[in-house]
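To make this tangible, we now present a fold written out as tokens:
***
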Amino acid sequence: MNKNFEIILKYFNEENVEYTYDEDKEFISIVVGKSNSGKKIFEDLIDDGPVLRVYISMKFGQNIRIDKNTKHRLLEYFHQVNFGMIRGNFEYDSEMKLFRFKNYFESEMISNKNYVMYNIVLPVIMFKKYLLGVKDVIKTNKSVKSIINKIESEST
């Protein structure tokens, strides 16, 4: 087993975090919630050598129609949300109708439990914070700026 993952799994066991570890693909998955349809939402950790990548992603359901205007609004939304973000970023694949929040942390800092746990929780916090805005972009005609301003004013 990967040394970095051994340390992380030890932390997870100490904190009673539920996880699965895929030895063949070398990644850890944590269930962090469920979508409205009941599908589990996973956060994945991948070891990329000097950094550990953490991401949480969600795919729009088949019943959600994204026309050209909504696609552009979503692209604008993620672009604006990413502006000035200190740690991590949102990505949006408009063809696969998938969006995710990606973060990373340095492998050399893995001995610091608080640092590791913070960087594992951060994508979940960011994803939950901005998920409501994604729903507003799809379901309303509100301006992207007003949607973001509302989210950011409520979280301060």
Notes: The CA atoms of residues 56 and 124 lie 7 Å apart. Helices lie at 3-15, 68-82, 113-139, 144-154. The mean pLDDT is 89. The radius of gyration is 17 Å.
